[in-house]
Amino acid sequence: MNRNIINGLKAFVQDKASSLTGLHISWFGGEPLISLDVIEELSESFLAIAKENQIQYSCDLVTNGYLLTTEVFERLISWNINQFMITIDGIGEVHDRRRHLTGGGKTFDKILDNLMAIKDVPGSFNVTIRTNFDEDNLQATSELIRFLKDHFADDERFGIMFRPVGQWGGKNDDDIPVCSRTMANQKIWELSDEAITQGFSMSSMITDSLMPSASVCYSAKPHSLVVGSDGQLYKCTLSLNEEFNKVGKIHEDGNLELDYDKIANWVTSGEETDTGCQSCFYRPACQGNHCPLYRMRTGERPCPYEKRNIKKVLNLIWKNNNK
Ligand code: SF4
Predict the structure, then answer these.
(1) Interatomic CA distance for residues 297 and 32, integer angstroms
(2) How far is CA 48 from the centre of its chain?
(3) Taking the CB of residue 235, how many other CB atoms lie within 10 A of it?
(4) Residue 45 main-chain phi, psi, to 5 deg
(5) Using 50, 70 and 90 to split pLDDT, how confident is the model at 176?
(6) Taking the domains of the chain in order of start, what are their residue ranges?
(7) Residue 253: pLDDT band by 50, 70, 90 thresholds?
(8) Per-residue pLDDT, 56
(9) Which terminal residue of the chain, N or C, has fewer Cβ atoms less than 10 Å from its own Cβ?
(10) CA angle (139, 144, 150) in 5-degree steps
């Protein structure tokens, strides 16, 4: 991230501080821990501003876990970053084949060592281990669940969630062996059930997503922005190359240049006129805005996985809480 964008972000938050009651930062990107110095500088600035203005400040971080040593982890915790999502797609070679270094090097052993070491860090934090599945690694997922259970089931701060790999655009889309929609909807909860049965906690993100407005996508929220390292502002973290998602720029003095017509497409993406959503039992959580991008691209309702299988999900939450 350029110096002028870092300055711009600090100035922006300072400028808005007196009108804020809460500020949530999601550290997310190609790999955010590559720029730990930027996270440090911005965190220290945001923490000071939050303290001075009595703003509730919270953070999460999505990382591949490769650089997440105990020392880095403890620094992140000191900056209020205490919700983590780390993807593990299989044991050893299965993971390494899918999530390797740029030059092809292995990553699994190092990520596992990092996660095991984090267990010794005292205090309150939450690590969601996310497993993305498709036809390629699905068969190996039961073995992965047993493996993760042996390593993490004894620590309640670790939970697991499963998500199907999707085709979200890009030149390799057709080569991805995605599961069919029906199969994906079924497997998410079958695998979760298997993990809970083995004694591993389901990620708290699943239970939390049932709360009022908790399944509304950040892109649908008027005051949520994605800040690119070059200062480009977006609403969505997926469609980064599409013009309709490039909604503005941040300047060094903290001023934002925003295209409100583009933003309106994300925050009023269809639920207002969708009678199906208006009579839906899940509307308090999703508000028809679980994924504005999906609705824009397909014209269909973006119902969350939890809603599509709500009875099973409620059973799993009960089972998870009583295991
Ligand atoms: S769950 Fe589906 S039908 Fe219900 S409000 Fe959300 S998008 Fe609309």
Answers:
(1) 28
(2) 25
(3) 26
(4) -70, -45
(5) confident
(6) 3-212, 218-303
(7) very high
(8) 98
(9) C
(10) 150
Looking from the CA of residue 286, the nearest atom of ligand 1 is 6
Q: How far apart are CA 13 and CA 23, in angstroms?
A: 9
Of 259, 264, 269, 260, residue with least CA distance to 294? 269
State the Cα–Cα distance between residues 287 and 271, nearest whole angstrom. 7
Q: Indicate which residue's Cα is closest to atom 6 of ligand 1.
A: 288
Phi/psi of residue 90, each to 5°? 170, 175
Residues 39-74: tens digit of each pLDDT: 999 999 999 999 999 999 999 999 999 999 999 999
CB 23 within 8 A of CB 57: yes
Distance of CA 262 to the CA centre of its chain: 23
Q: What is the C-alpha end-to-end distance of the chain, expressed in Å?
A: 45
> Ligand 1 centre from 272 Cα, in Å?
12
233-298-314-217 Cα dihedral, nearest 10 degrees = 10
Cα 302 to ligand 1 centre (Å): 6
The rounded distance, in Å, linking the Cα atoms of 220 and 205 is 19
Q: Is 288 helix (H, G, I), strand (E, B) or coil?
A: coil
pLDDT at 271 over 90: no
For ligand 1, whether the C-beta of 303 sits within 6 Å is yes
Q: Is the CB of 216 under 6 A from ligand 1?
A: no
218 pLDDT band, cuts 50/70/90, is very high
Ligand 1 within 6 A of 290 CB? yes
The domain made up of 3-212 has a fold known as TIM Barrel (3.20.20)
**What is the distance between the alpha carbons of residues 314 and 306, in angstroms, rounded to a whole number?**
9
Strands (E), the chain: 22-27, 56-63, 81-87, 126-133, 158-164, 226-227, 232-234, 246-250, 256-258
Is the pLDDT assigned to residue 112 strictly greater than 90?
Answer: yes
Cβ 283 under 6 angstroms from ligand 1: yes
Render pLDDT for 183-193 as a digit per residue (tens, 0 to 9): 999 999 999 99
